[in-house]
Amino acid sequence: MSSEDLSLGPVQVLRGERGGKYPQGNSLLIRGDRETVVVDPSLGLSARRDRLPRVDRVLNSHCHEDHVAGNHLFPAVPWHAHELDVVGFRSLDDMMAIYGYDASSPAVAATFRESLVNDFHWVARPDARAFRDGDGFDLGGVRLRVLHTPGHTRGHSCFLVDWDGSTDRLVYLGDIDLTSFGPYYGDAWSDLEDFERSLERVRALEVRWYATFHHIGVLEGRAAFLERLDRFTAKIAEREQRLLEFLADPRSLDEIARHRFVYRPEDPVSFAEPVERRSMAQHLERLITRGAVEVLPGDRFRRVVA
Question: Which domains does the chain have, with CATH numbers?
Fold first, then answer.
């Protein structure tokens, strides 16, 4: 194990390179008396595969490339994901449907399809097993419970972990990652308002440790968690306010996507355009519903001034 790995009761946080910055991530190894599971095997597990104990099953918080990049290291054990995401293991076409690039950005889709296989080691597992909200896994003195938290993807889920002989608990938040980047809801299977409801659900959790896949790794204590969660959540309102300011003049969705509200203009992200379109289209939809934005001829949008 790496010197940077962190042990919290039966949970070992396997830290990714660069603090788990994308495309790396922080995986969990959880050991009970009967079973050991790995949660969201990351790219970094390839280099340490021979040093890991026997793993009995793989749990994925959702089907995104960076969270399944190490699944191929465990071909002989069951893989599990939420019933709304597990289809991503059925075929490469099904995995690509989660992102939605094929229809909106064919060139991006072709490049990303290759990257899924060559860079993230995606392999089909039609026999992957589905779990639902509230399902549990008893590892022998250690228990995991599924918390369905959609928005990032339809099936995105957190895992609540508790164990015998302790009142301590840990929740694994997956890509509710509490980073300064903010919530990501830019894929075909993402939903802004579902994400907001999921943020409220995790806000109610009172545990000792809060673990994320990217950057943060582990926060101890509810106060530290809420501080990060507030900043993370605030990015949604910040993006919406910036969009309203940009719509002082009529703008098309193409212009909005090029301006960038999710990524910085200088960020070299090949799939930024479809992500910006999907993210901002959701903001536009609810701003129009609220009467804050009007639709003009030629599919242009402008802020309504009271």
Answer: 6-233 (3.60.15.10), 237-299 (no CATH)
